[in-house]
Amino acid sequence: MNVPGMDWSPLWLTMQLAGVTVIVLLLVGTPVAWWLACTRSRFRTLVEAIVALPIVLPPTVLGFYLLVALGPHGLIGGPWKDMTGSALSFTFSGLVIASTFYSLPFVVQPLHGAFEAVGKKPLEAAWSLGASKLDAFFTVASPMAVRGYLSAVVLGFAHTLGEFGVVLMVGGNIPGVTKVLSIAIYDHVEVLEYTQAHVLSAVLLIFSFLILAIVYTINRRLPIHVS
Amino acid sequence: MNRLDARFYIDYPGFCFDVACTVPLEGTTAVFGSSGSGKTTLLRCIAGLTRVPSGFLQFDQAVWQDDAQGIFLPVEERRVGVVFQEARLFPHLTVTQNLKYGMKRSNPSLRRIDFDHVSELLKLEPLFERRVSHLSGGEQQRVAIGRALLTSPQLLLMDEPLASLDQQRKKEILPFIQKLNQELRIPVLYVSHDLQEILPLANHMVLLKEGKVAATGPIQEVFSRLDLPGLVESNMVGAILETRIVEHEPQFGLTRVEFLGQSLFLPQQALPPGTPLRVQILSRDVSLVVGDPPATSSVLNTLEATIVEVGESPSDQYAVEVKLDVGCPLLAMITRKSLQQLRLRPGQKVHAHFKAVALN
Fold first, then answer.
1. How many domains does chain A have?
2. Do B91 and A226 touch (CB under 8 A)?
3. Which helix (H) or strand (E) segment is B115 a member of?
């Protein structure tokens, strides 16, 4: 596609951000979801509420707190700066951390639901067959929760693609570093470059539609029905 | 003989589970009781799937749980096979993969059960490539039994494995479970509330009532106890005899079996001569004759018996249960009138006439 004055870098940056964020989300979200599905701790409801917060909070509020936390004197940014020498705010790494918080409920909730649907019974069978707890998680619980993983990956990815407020607060608008698709579209509209805004919006729309269509199709055909 | 020693105590709200029992590690031990008696809890404690805060479990020389010393061996290290009421097969694996799941995780030097032997025993081969969701309930349970056996367990725990199947499927699976014991020599703990499953299978029995052990011992002895009134229909069972088929008399539709050197007749069986056959006698099918039996009688089965004791009948206030010794215990339910007329007393020699039914 050849549009004069078109800068494609926000598109690649967005894809990179969403991809890396989804990987981090799976690494962080899976243990949290597993803990929620297994625990009887009284802190369970508190953790559930904290994980769900980004759904109800205005992105600017979340973004504001993250900006403070990721800054050179913040809760996360401070130690990070001591270790690496640079702050987290207005960097790609900072964006990944912010997106992880922002999209966490969209990964944890489907996984939590899927793990609960698998239940304890198949795991007890696996343990009695000599599988360790970790072994049973990877060879029984995870494959049986495959639909949950699929939903988690897609929702986490799509939700990160579309974020605006948090990114603007934490990442600013640095071309090639933190200028993602949604912000680029906003910029184009600001200066009345409707053609570029149209192209980027259409790309995002078609991509989002395709990915959802593919997921729903795969989901229908998956062999495992955990009820 | 190797033994399993178990003591578990937990005070649930409204239910106190307090079980102490010793079970021989050979043959099949039935854990029997009505629902809510704590059977499944006992099995889960032995498997290590439920941990009561105060428990002791010793398998032969190995201590699996001793909370006084803080010992608790997790289920995956106990080498027990568990067959649950629902088959609990893994839906994302094929039948073969399910069967090999535990086998692959077992220690190769401790494997003593052969894949081909188990598939032949349980007739699993036609199922190998099938998806688990396409199996019938009975087929699923057969795969689950095979899967547990292939870990070469030291003990096989079965928690009402037939309860979710219909009568037809039960009849299909029961012979497989009977064969397990004879061919593989793995001790089995079999939980059930159904007498008809236990009688053909069990050698030993733990009878649970409201979370406590009401009786335990060899199955013949438990069923001949007169002090268990009200416990299920246990007193209906007069005796369980271990016999062997001698010959068939097809012209009369009868099979002759041998019991302690004496002949008994049953309705004709399909099994070949030489096969061991477990025979049940109902206590109401036994009648007693004092003195020599009449030379001519239509009754085919007669055993010499010595009266051991006389007790109340739980089911009929005008009847009594007489406990006899015929080489093994035998209960006879007779009327109070007969008891008085025959002046029966412990130590007396009588003849027991009865009808026998095969259990296999």
1. 1
2. yes
3. helix B115-121
- Listed by start position, the domains of chain B span 3-223, 237-358
Lookup: tokens for B96: 């073969």
CB contact at 8 A, B352 and B302: yes
Neighbours of B146 (CB within 10 A): 26
DSSP-assigned beta bridge partners for residue B175: none
Given CB atoms, is A212 within the 8 Å cutoff of chain B? no
pLDDT of A227 above 50: no
* pLDDT tops 80 at residue B208: yes
Packed helices B137-149 and B95-104: angle between N→C axes, nearest 10 degrees:
20
Asked whether B158 and B196 are in contact (CB, 8 A), the reply is: no
Cβ–Cβ contact B76 with A under 8 A: yes
User: For the domain that residue A110 is a member of, what is the CATH number?
Assistant: 1.10.3720.10
pLDDT score recorded for residue B12: 84
Q: Using a CB-CB distance cutoff of 8 angstroms, which residues of chain B are in contact with residue A225?
A: 91, 133
Among B317, B321, B314, B315, residue whose Cα is nearest residue B339: B321
3-state SS, residue B84: coil
Q: Which of B283, B284, B328 minimizes the C-alpha distance to B305?
A: B328
Cα angle B273, B276, B280; round to 5: 115
| A135 at interface of B, judged by CB pairs closer than 8 A | yes
- State the SS3 of A73-118: CCCCHHHHHHHHCCCCCCCHHHHHHHHHHHHHHHHHHHHHHHHHHH
CATH 3.40.50.300 is right for the domain spanning B3-223:
yes
Q: Which of A130, A133, A146 sits opposite B105 (nearest CB)?
A: A130
Task: Report which secondary-structure segment, H or E, holds A63.
Answer: helix A59-70
Task: Select from B40, B45, B50, B90 the residue whose CB has the most chain A CBs within 10 Å, as the one to mutate to test that interface.
Answer: B90
**Residue B237 · residue B275 · CB < 8 Å:** no
Interchain CB contact of B45 with A (< 8 Å): no
Which residue from A121, A130, A223 is facing B151, i.e. has the nearest CB?
A130
Domain that holds residue A177: 9-221
Question: pLDDT at position B291, please?
Answer: 78
CATH number of B237-358: 2.40.50.100
| Nearest CB partner across the interface for B76, out of A131, A146, A223 | A131
Say what the pTM is: 0.84
Alpha helical stretches, state H, A8-58? 9-38, 44-56
User: A3 falls in which pLDDT band (50, 70, 90)?
Assistant: low
pLDDT at A131 over 50: yes
Q: Does B102 touch chain A (CB under 8 A)?
A: yes
DSSP state of A2: -
Contacts of B89 in chain A (CB under 8 A): 125
Whether the CB of A128 is below 8 Å from some CB of chain B: the reply is yes
* Interface contact flag, B151 A129, Cβ < 8 Å: yes
Q: What is d(CA B233, CA B219) in angstroms, rounded to the nearest whole number?
A: 14
Complex ipTM: 0.85
pLDDT of residue A202: 92
Residues B82, A128: C-beta atoms closer than 8 Å: yes
